[in-house]
Amino acid sequence: MGMTMTQKILAKHAGLEKVEAGQLIQVNLDLVLGNDITSPVAIKEFLKTGVKDVFDRSKIAIVPDHFTPNKDIQSAEQCKYVREFAYKHNIENYFEIGEMGIEHCLLPEKGLVVPGDVVIGADSHTCTYGALGAFSTGIGSTDMAAGMATGKGWFKVPGAIKFVLTGKPAKYVSGKDVILHIIGKIGVDGALYKSMEFAGDGLKHLSMDDRFSMANMAIEAGGKNGIFPVDEKTIEYVNNHSNKPYTVYTADDDAVYDEIYNINLSELRPTVAFPHLPDNTRTIDDVGDVKIDQVVIGSCTNGRLEDLRIAAELLKGKKVTKGVRVIVFPGTQKIYLDAMKEGLLEIFIEAGAIVSTPTCGPCLGGHMGILAKGERAIATTNRNFVGRMGHPESEVYLASPAVAAASAIAGKIKNPEEI
Amino acid sequence: MEATGKAFKYGNNVDTDVIIPARYLNTSDPKELGKHCMEDIDTTFVERVQEGDMIIANKNFGCGSSREHAPLAIKASGVSCVIAKSFARIFYRNAINIGLPILECDEAVDGIEANDKIKVDFQRGIIFNETKNETYQAQPFPEFIQEIISSGGLVSYIQKQMK
Ligand code: SF4
């Protein structure tokens, strides 16, 4: 019986020849991540262990991104606590204002994650790095503390669901649409405990940015991680961003999958998740007439350069509907700068959108774009739970940057093909 | 490591909100939390539970929020072990991290009835039903997980290792 890609990475990091689904193992970690919300708790737990120093100051990343630039006194105090810890322990990968970004956009860009790595993060969207052929998953603050102290983490080896992608997606069908389609199909607990393993020759049509946004939302199907095979696109990305040595793992031919789904990308349509769950999906042809008050383009799901490019392509020379607030928040300083150099920011501003500094901001209803009672937003983020972006009676619709930009122009949810 | 006690039995999807309602989350003191354990699913639980007793539940025990207060409340109430067909992923991690033993075993869940007297041998994964004279086999925990649990959780385990 063979192993899946995830199982092979875990076996290697546990020093074992072989692992099986359900087995409990202890693995060596390549990177431990935390943010401004989860790190303070983890640091307190870390201090309780009595361990004097972190296991490896180059293998810890702390990124205050959720409520930064600090939105209030409490978040300022939290960041201060985290900053002092980072300085005291010489944490190499501590990034704050000026060099920060949304953690899951920033880490790959800084070359901190490479194929074959095992990464844990005290943030549920740590699964994003599966796009690079790494095993990465979200854990709690106690796990982060233990990871910082010992460099080890324990896992239950996950079983797997395989998604075989074929065909070429249409122009306005992006990775976001593919993952929304999958979540709509298997449900928000469809991949509970399991790894979502992507495969098939349709992958060659998905850019790295597409893959990041797909792996990012594995957790929205309950998955432990989502993972992509390493191909030329991955290698190119890694060579451009990192000097770290990497290892390419491939699934065995006789690996065991609990389920296999075949998805023809050429048949997919732009897809929107209606409130209040990411699996409540409809294709753009079935959305009906949904007026919107706000458009949010950004986040760790869709705040990368390609996302901004496609939004700008649609907004170029157009105006957003009067009364609709359009907020663009690039994922990192570098993405921000690149978008500026390419003239994308100018397009957004001329169209009537605003461009924010990188922050999680509106994505989690933190700051910079909170919704009032009864308001509706279309967002390129990953969660549309009750109250996620503000008032419990507000609504969030999840979509791709193309659909979000088209909707900004139309003032209601709109098919980008019709712009 | 062994435990003995009587069984409390529940169904599918016992969520973290019924294990410890959000209205009690203004404290993380285990003793306080233990006083309200299972309150919204079984109002008499806290009065009846005795040191060593076990919770037996069906599928997806501990689903819902990631609050570590849920396993803390169960542990503080005196419960020695939770046996279920499956656990929600985060609850599973949290339980081990705070030192609450949990076991997955379909046969045990099907075989055990409320108030049966149960004995668990964690080292071997053996669940013995004294009332019915039946034995069920669960996957035993590997040594490092047993050590985490017997140390009282992940943080104490690391403390010990560092000594
Ligand atoms: S952008 Fe949103 S989903 Fe991503 S890390 Fe920030 S809050 Fe979480």
TrEMBL record, chain A:
The lineage of its organism: Bacteria, Bacillati, Bacillota, Clostridia, Peptostreptococcales. Its EC number is 4.2.1.33. [4Fe-4S] cluster binds at residues 300, 360, 363. PROSITE patterns: ACONITASE_1, ACONITASE_2. Catalyzes the isomerization between 2-isopropylmalate and 3-isopropylmalate, via the formation of 2-isopropylmaleate. This is 3-isopropylmalate dehydratase large subunit. The keyword Iron-sulfur applies. HAMAP family: LeuC_type2. Binds 1 [4Fe-4S] cluster per subunit.
Automatic annotation (TrEMBL), chain B:
CDD domains: IPMI_Swivel. Residues 49-103 form the Aconitase A/isopropylmalate dehydratase small subunit swivel domain. Keywords: Amino-acid biosynthesis, Branched-chain amino acid biosynthesis, Leucine biosynthesis, Lyase. The keyword Amino-acid biosynthesis applies. Its EC number is 4.2.1.33. It is an enzyme of class 4 (lyase). Heterodimer of LeuC and LeuD. This is 3-isopropylmalate dehydratase small subunit. It comes from Alkaliphilus peptidifermentans DSM 18978. The gene is leuD.
